[in-house]
Amino acid sequence: MLTLLKYLRIRDWVVITFILGFVVLQVMLDLELPDYMGGIVTLIQEQSSVNEILIQGLKMLGIVAGSVTSTIIVTYLAARVACGFSKRVRRAFFNKVNSFSMEEMEKFSTASLITRTTNDITQVQQTLTMFLRMALSAPTMAIGAILKIVGKSGTLSWITALAIVLLLIVLITIFSFVSPKFKKMQKLTDKINGVTRENLTGIKVVRAYNAEKLQEEKFEDVNQNLTATDLFINRMFSIMFPSMQLIMNGLSLAIIWVGGYLISNGSLDLANLTIFTQYAMQVLISFLLLSMLFIIIPRGVVSGNRIYEVLKTQNKIINGTKTKPELKGALEFKNVSFKYPDSDDYVLKNISFSVNQGETVAFIGSTGSGKSTLINLVPRFYDVSEGEVIIDGTNVKEYDIKSLYEKLGYVPQKSFLFRGTVEENIKYGNENATDEEVINALKTAQALNFVEKLENGLNYEISQGGKNVSGGQRQRLCIARAIVRKPEIFIFDDSFSALDYKTDRALRKALKKETRKSTCLIVAQRIGTIMDADKIIVLDKGEMVGMGTHKELMQNCKIYQEIAYSQLSKEELL
Amino acid sequence: MKSNNQSPKFAGPNHRGNNRQKAKNFKKSIIQLLLHLKPYWILIGIALIFACAGTIFSILGPKILSKITTEIILGLSPNASINFVKITTIGIWLIILYCASALFSFTQNFIMAKVTAKTSKSLREEISKKINRLPLKYFDSQSYGDILSRVTNDVDTIGQTLSQSLSQMITSITTLIGIVVMMFTISWQLTLVALISVPLSMFLVMIFVKISQKYFIRQQNTLGEMNGHIEETYSAHNVIKVFNGENKAEQEFDKINNELYTNGYKSQFYSGLMMPMMNFVGNISYVVICIIGGSMALTDITFIASIVAFIQYIRQFNQPIQQVASIAGTLQTTAAASERVFEFLNEEEQPDESYKTKTIKNFKGKVEFKNVCFGYSPDKEIIHNFSETAFPGQKVAIVGPTGAGKTTMVNLLMRFYEITSGDILIDGVSIKDMNRNYVRSLFGMVLQDTWLFEGTIRENIAYGKQNATDEEIVEACKASNIDHFIKTQPNSYNMILDEEANLSQGQKQLITIARAMVENAPMLILDEATSSVDTRTEELIQEAMDKLIKGRTSFVIAHRLSTIKNADLILVMKDGNVIETGTHEELLAKKGFYADLYNSQFTKKHAEIDELN
Question: What is the ipTM of this complex?
């Protein structure tokens, strides 16, 4: 957590020193006021002139003006430092996440990374601001006020000390009860959200099974729990505020009461009594502020740790240095095995095959057979557990990652488009693509037809997540984006699934022409998509159970036959 | 803070900068909320009286305290001594006063905490129950995020107002009035001076609220933009990597980040200035009081005690002003929240059917459609005068292109939607004459959208029949080809299904089939698996479904030829309407839409295989 402080630059530390200076100045000025007030009391007792009181008053005004100026400066500087700090942390965080591999993304989950980038960093920023503004002012005020009164009367000082102790006991007791409940509250809120969401998303099923009662009971359960926790917290607070008030009132009464006796035996004068009352209040208030700090800081620390946890993560994928500009596209898997770091079971076991430039290799098998995982090893979304993945004679781990990616044209399983125009999305594959190349890529991907029909054609604005084009269209645009890159190796991770048969066929035909020199890796569900591949690799539970052309496999691979027959006899209606 | 912790997927319209919504009808919303609080009116009344009492007592404090000071000052004059008897009497009264005040505010808080908790709970409960009583139609036009935020955010807002703002409003106003009264009793001259600062404070508050609001809104907007960019970047992580797009993403990020920084520190600065400025005004009046009061005390020395008391009042004066200002804003938000909650609670519900007790004795499973007309919106009828009969044990296939409205038939059978005219009869009894829960209990349902809830596999499977025995469950899972998978999972049947549980689409579908098997309803509605499932799993699903169908009248939304060919009745749908009915052979002979559909598919496929070979 503290390591996050390295995102404060030297300049910031200088500014922070200034802030602290002004905070101290402001507190000291504020503390002067009761003294002057005491001065006025003395002036009155000495029956001085109105003029003298006025002069005293003007001095007080000067102090007040000085104090507010310091406060403004502190507020301004603190806001700048804290926001600047969060800006740099956010940037570092964002860049860190960008450098993650799929394994690390999965470890944290996208949703959690998003909240960390926004909510948690905002939380830390708020904590820092509060800290800058209060961490020094509260203790300075406490110490200053104590110094002011401590010489004035021993007895009254003891009374004040007693009040402080009482106050702290009340606060600490209440917060030790309440703070664990706060965490529980958050969890229960999430839960109540979850139960409601469940009921909503499954509303048809709930009604079909007449399970409304069951859902309501579930809700009632969480609701009961949430209410009880909420009530507990609120009740604790209903004790807190009146008792704080009581302590403060008690203190001022005690001071004046006891002060009366002290004055009568001559150990205190009236001016000092009035001053003491006010400073004693200041001391109490500063302790209150301090305890607030102890509430705010832990929250910031929790968020800080959540941020730090991400920042300190060692990247699993270590960049190599080799660059190979020449395009070839030969790929080899040598005894490759893969398993997730925390699991015992291998997802892929001992896979070996090689592909020459320009060949098409297809991977087929049931869900969970490891096809996608296998293909993900090429762009190093994961690194192999054992064995080697070799492109153009060099292990992928040795490549400079950027130059490795320049060789690849990747079409993901989940078609993802960016906000922006169609053209921008296609050019994402190759910034320098000419208009002609863009049109060509669209044509090959069978996307030109529908793009031309879109409002504004190539300049049609894609919304976030590409929700304003259909699944099949999205997929074709993603394919065009890869084509415009003219890569050495194409990777199609189940990228034809949303296309109807006719488009699928036309696309592959066009692609074949376009990619004569490129190597193609295709993961597919449909036999039709892959039966013309140079090589088909059949996977089953992570193992390679067949390799060959469609014809060969139809003769010698039982699993392949099963898949093929099941599809040929069950042609899709549409 | 809470609202931002929702998962982004379910971000409702309330997600961004939600704190400043305005109610369309402020008065009505507040009245509705007050009416809802009716059972607690007496309690709230008591609480408010206590709040007033507590405040008045605490306001009296400084004034009475100043009497002690006066006594001390009087005792200091020559030839006099301090009257400690009097001081003690005053002191004891003060102790009583302070304790009473504390007790009052404690009781007030305590009562309001209870009222708040109960109200929030009942509101949440009502919303939850309401969800299950609304016609499905309602959800066509409503986003889940929106309803969710009513259950949490809006109810929370109402709760906060009840527990804090309501009593705060009373105490603030009481304090303001009380302080002014007390100040007048001390010195009307000083009070007038002090009151001058009120409009000044108000003015400052307004200015700073306005400026900081401007930057706050900008900050929220930038934050929204940032959220969008981050979400996009993080979820397209792979694509960005492989296309070497990190630099571009980072540049864009920097741009938004810088903007966020500028708006952020400005909004923080201006909103941070409010307190110091209020204090400044307070301090100025403090000084002015000191000067004027001091001058006045020159002629009357006991006036010092009054000044001390007066200063304590002055110090308390600014706080209620600030509170009243912020409560006005809170009330706006509360009105908006309560408007949203009650709007939802007042939505028209499905008509009560508890009086319908008609059941089918001697169940056979004949389903008759009689001149059925239906449209999702009244002005657009999509099913026109449809009549057909499914006989006991028959399999009815519903086919048609995507978007043809195949689920409409399901919606009508299950009474998710009510037909406009005509009738659907089961064994001669109109579904309108039966309780809708009873109608639904006649059908087992497996939908493509494989909904499972958070809970164990066992609970999920026993969803339709909560008293199912373990044997029944295991039996159903075996028949659904999912028993083996479940047994290989950690905790087996007790494995918790939640977002982290990694089930494939196919496995989920098998579980929903098992669920329907356990329910063992006399009729079935099935939606076949689609392309998201691999072929081998598909086969398993098909096999399980075939077992399920046996002997039951079933309605199958079909995607495959094999299902259609052996169906007893095929309903061909297009553009929402049923355009042809009959058996496979009959329909082919008709040479209509179905025949076209079937033949074109068939020949194309063959042509293609030839070509590829």
Answer: 0.79
